[in-house]
Design a protein that fits this description.
By secondary structure, this protein is of the alpha/beta class. It has three domains: 1-29, no CATH class; 30-121 and 132-186, Rossmann fold; 193-315, Rossmann fold, CATH 3.40.50. It has 13 helices and eight strands. The protein has a four-stranded parallel β-sheet, sandwiched between helices. Strands 6-5-7-8 form a four-stranded parallel β-sheet. Helix 12 links the parallel strand 7 and strand 8. Helix 7 (152-169) packs antiparallel against helix 8. The longest helix has 29 residues, at 174-202. The chain is globular, with a radius of gyration of 22 Å. Bound molecules: zinc ion. Residues 70, 147, 211, 213, 236, 267, 291 line the site of zinc ion. The site of zinc ion (ZN) has 7 residues, from loops.
């Protein structure tokens, strides 16, 4: 439909542009009324809302600020919401496999953040930094880490893709969607500037986390995730870390080898709680990160801003400003 319109405009010339604009809403097949975007977690819901503004409706399946979204199983009503969607935004990479399954075989336009991530990072995930890379392997930004909602460039790209998809569904509001995505992208750039400031002051500093949650953000901030890969993987999979991995992490904390401990408040068990106590006893600053939006927060940028501020404060500010 888009292609037909573009071809027509090209044929009849620029003078017809205004006319074509006036009839933009009537291409056959586009649903009438307010488009509905369905997302898996409220993190992707908050990104979608930033783009949708008051022109499209956003429905989110997972909103529990306490639970573990890895363990979420949708109801039949949830799945029905997905099939009724005009556009779906999902994380992908196995994080919300129920969404991938729900859109399988349908023609609902779907934005898959992990696909975007793979397209962007196919060749440069280890490049760039010349400090601190020698022994940290691939456990925090290898292609197994599906927490791409902590990868800020990917999040901005999801917003742009969603704006373009909504613009096709709802041409009358195309400019609004694109302007919203652009404004969102500007705010993401602001967050990235803050990560660059952390990197300037703390490049190569070792930190630890309980789950691979913040891996991409830590990498952009120049921080090295020293946590035993076996520990973070076990927590992510809802299993108990091995005694050896637990001892290794405990050692990193008691020796203060790591300068901050990033604690996922939504993947908690007796072992992560024990590590939290070790960190507190050892005087390693604890930074609490969440996997979905905390209660009372609906804005993606505000959420990440407060987490980045907490991380920066934990590392201590020795910048000269
Ligand atoms: Zn997770």
């Amino acid at each position: 439909m888009r292609r037909t319109l573009a071809t027509t405009v090209a044929l009849i010339g620029a003078s017809a542009l205004a006319l074509a604009g006036c009839s933009g809403g009537d291409d056959g097949g586009a649903s009438s009324g307010t488009p509905t975007v369905v997302t898996s977690t409220n993190v992707w819901g908050s990104v979608a809302s930033a783009v949708a503004g008051d022109k499209a409706t956003v429905t989110t399946l997972y909103t529990n600020a306490e639970g573990d979204p890895h363990e979420f199983e949708p109801s039949a009503a949830d799945t029905a919401k997905v099939s009724d969607a005009d556009v779906v935004v999902l994380n992908g990479g196995g994080y919300d496999a129920y969404m991938e399954k729900a859109v399988e075989g349908s023609d609902i336009p779907t934005i898959d953040a992990y696909d975007i991530f793979q397209g962007d990072h196919g060749h440069d995930s280890q490049a760039g930094s010349d400090s601190g890379d020698h022994d940290h392997g691939d456990h925090d930004h290898g292609d197994q880490n599906e927490h791409v909602f902590y990868d800020l460039p990917v999040v901005a790209e999801v917003a742009t893709d969603l704006a373009n998809t909504l613009a096709e569904k709802d041409p009358a509001n195309a400019d609004a969607y694109r302007a919203n995505a652009e404004a969102f992208g500007t705010k993401i750039t602001g967050l990235r500037d803050d990560l660059a400031t952390i990197k300037k002051d703390h490049d190569g500093t070792e930190v630890a986390q309980t789950e691979p949650l913040a891996g991409y953000m830590l990498a952009e901030a120049g921080l090295v995730d020293a946590s035993p890969a076996g520990f973070t993987q076990s927590v992510e999979e809802g299993q108990s870390p091995s005694a050896a991995d637990r001892a290794a992490l405990e050692d990193l904390l008691t020796s203060k080898t790591v300068h901050a401990f990033i604690y996922n408040t939504q993947a908690v068990d007796s072992v992560t709680e024990a590590m939290l106590s070790v960190a507190e006893r050892s005087g390693v600053p604890v930074v609490k990160f969440t996997e979905t939006l905390p209660d009372g927060t609906t804005d993606y940028v505000a959420w990440q801003q407060s987490q980045i501020d907490a991380l920066s404060a934990a590392l201590g500010n020795h910048a000269a400003h």
